[in-house]
Amino acid sequence: MKAKKILLWVLAAILTLGAAKYQRMTGPTYPKKEKITLNNTDYNLEFIRSHGGDEDAAITLDIDNNEVSGKLFFKNYPPVEDEDLTNVEFRHDAVKEKNVMIANLPHQPPAGKLMYYIELSHAGDTKTLFKEKPIVIRFKGGVPAYVLIPHIIFMFLAMLSANAAGLFAAFKLPQFKPYTSITLILILTGGMILGPIVQKFAFLEYWAGVPFGWDLTDNKLLIAFLAWITAFLFNRKKENRISTIAAALVTLIIFSVPHSMFGSELNRETGEVIQGFIQF
Questions:
Q1: Which of 145, 158, 261, 277 could form a disulfide with 186 if both were Cys (CB 3.0 to 4.6 A apart)?
Q2: Whole-prediction pTM value?
């Protein structure tokens, strides 16, 4: 029995880490990576799609060659009618004792977005990246570590506990029942309490899901919370494995959906934060 429990916990951990990794890497705010060849030299570049804080967003390219020049082109997203592109020159600078190229995107209000592409040149060889499908970057307010870190920890533990509860229920281990309650408490704390506080710091809104909006991240959290409330209620008087398995499956599926997809977006005409869409 003990070996079986350990095996199920290991499997729960693998599912949790796998879902977290998949969600992060497929999300529209995860940095976009691109490899280019410029004048017979290969460069592996990374382009940010999310920026927090009150400062400009630095587009930093790992190019240690002072002979390479470049331009950053950008404008609002969604584009404002008749808006022209703005462009700035990349500069060479040292960051952490490493020579890189940097150009800044101007700071935007929380949930404001810009779209950008770049042009690089070296000895007559010029490459343009993302002109046909510009990268979209979303800005957000700074979230204090004392709020963000507990939120992340509680949500990770909630996912781990959910997977463990579902597996224990599937293999008919009685421990699934207390883990059903623990999962509900973790989602309540990390998601329904700390989540809106993080949202407020980042996008000036406590809640952008149903019934106030269609923010997918908030609505995913709401679905998971309702699933575990249902499982908790069904298990109050007697064991109900099916409800716990169903709640675990729902949680695994919705938390595998790319994070920040259909996330908050600033309506520049009204100044309101609405549900939007970030290009892939």
A1: 158
A2: 0.82
